[in-house]
Amino acid sequence: MITIVNRNDRDTQNDAGEKLSRSDYRKQQRAQKEAFEKRDRERMRAEQRYAKTHAEVNQQTDQVSQELSERKRQRLGRRLNWAIFLAKFRYYRGLSRSVFCRILTL
Fold it and tell me: Which terminus of the chain has a smaller tally of CB atoms within 10 A, N or C?
């Protein structure tokens, strides 16, 4: 035999399996909501404490990544300057395309 359970019947029962009145059900829902909010506040506090204690590590990591990005930018700038120089040189000196491409890949 198949038993069909109404969703509202499951939600409105206490731990003993008895049906709850509307006011008792609202009290239970309020208590669950307050418990969730309390856990959420604790979680937020823990995250803030963690962020404060690990702020130095994050700052050091940021400095290292900024230094690396600065180096990459400088290297890219040098290569771009060389490419522009060689393009102008090729134009003025009449270098062949194959020679120009070999120089760029160095």
Answer: N
Rounded CA-CA distance 19/59 in Å is 56
Among residues 104, 98, 100, the alpha carbon closest in space to that of 82 is found at: 104
What is the pLDDT at residue 92?
63
- 86 and 104 Cβ atoms separated by less than 8 Å: yes
Task: Please name the residue ranges forming H helices in 12-104.
Answer: 22-53, 55-93, 97-104
Q: Which range has highest mean pLDDT (19-33, 52-66, 71-85)? A: 19-33
pLDDT for position 16? 65
Region for 3 from its dihedrals, namely left if φ exceeds 0, alpha if ψ lies in -120 to 50, beta otherwise: beta
